[in-house]
Amino acid sequence: MNKKETKNVIIISPYGSDELLNPKHGGSKLIQMQKQYLEEKGYLVKFISLTEFRGFVPLLLKFIGNKKDFIMDKKIGEKRYLTWFLNLLFRIFIYYLQKLDVIFRQNAKKIFRDVCNNQNCVILNNYVYVDVNVISQKCKKIMFAHNVEFDFFRQLTGDKLYCKLFLLIFKKIEKKMIKLHDIICCLTKEDQKILLRETKQKNIVVWVPLPYPMQKMKQPNNTSEMNKNRFVVGFVGAFFDPNIEAAKKIMGIASKVKRSEIKFLIIGSVGKAFIKESLPKNVQLTGWVNDIDTYLQECDVFLNPKQSVKGGLEMKVLDYLKYFKPIITTSNGARGFPLTNTNSIIDDEVESWHKHILLLADNPELRIKIVNNLKSDYESFCKRMDDIFEKNII
After folding, report:
1. What is the DSSP string of 249-313?
2. Full-model pTM
3. What would the pLDDT profile of 138-165 be if each residue is shown by its tens digit?
4. 215-381: CATH class
5. What is d(CA 91, CA 85) in angstroms, rounded to the nearest whole number?
């Protein structure tokens, strides 16, 4: 890296500073990870939150941010897809609002003029919240595509005709905005293939994974004093449809494990979906926690039974990898990571996972072998990622 040319990096976020300091959602967690990674590599990183600008757009972002959990809690009858359709409409609405919001655009131009120069790289994290045309042309503009958004909403909004019509509008917006950036960073190769097929922008659409730097990885330690006589199986999830579905599957797995020393720990706000339900005795819900690491370090094995909604990076797996513990995942849940059947267990037949858990619980030597393979493969993955990042991004 030539630090003289690329000393400063600006990260633009639609989230407020409180959410970035203590992320409750995968999107804000990913932005926090960008900052950690770049600082580890010696860049000077500055956050700019769109919620701190003036105008109608920041007010709306603040309002939605404060109400996000409330909104996602609501089901319109059993038609859950309507929640996601309304989310899609919000994205389209705010895209056109930021073009008409004169106060916001003038304030954005002033702020970006003050902080951007030809030595700066600007990283954006959403296509619709700010028009890249208000950013100085001297800046290299990079978009971290958390997922392919039109494909993400396609999977969640169903096949209703009116959903499809608005999806076409949103898809057109996303493809148009892609062309205005210098680089589009896809976090999985699968997302990269979709964007290359849809946009034909081979020169700017790249695969750039974002792992934890090796220096931040935790060494495996003994199970905490609280669980010294137990084997703890962990899952992390925010209150989000695919996580709710995954947690239900984990409870099904737990019901097949009859050994009292094996405990299932479901960490995160996904637990809200099960507060009024009867749980297997070996399942514990933590709810949202401020310090996720306190719970992750208790676990001996991690699970990711994601099968629905293909796309994006599974932030929970990034959290799991910090601790170098065996991971049992579906092939969908492993997307974007160097997970194989030599350094983890990849199995799409989630109903049979209780067999893997029992095998790992009874074989500490197998757990050690898997972890050693994972360490070696992940270190190579990080080095490859560094090369890709410095070649394509900065």
Report:
1. HHHHHHHH---TTEEEEEEBGGGGGGTTS---TTEEEEES-S-HHHHHTT-SEEEE---SS--S-
2. 0.82
3. 778 889 888 899 998 998 887 889 999 9
4. alpha beta
5. 10
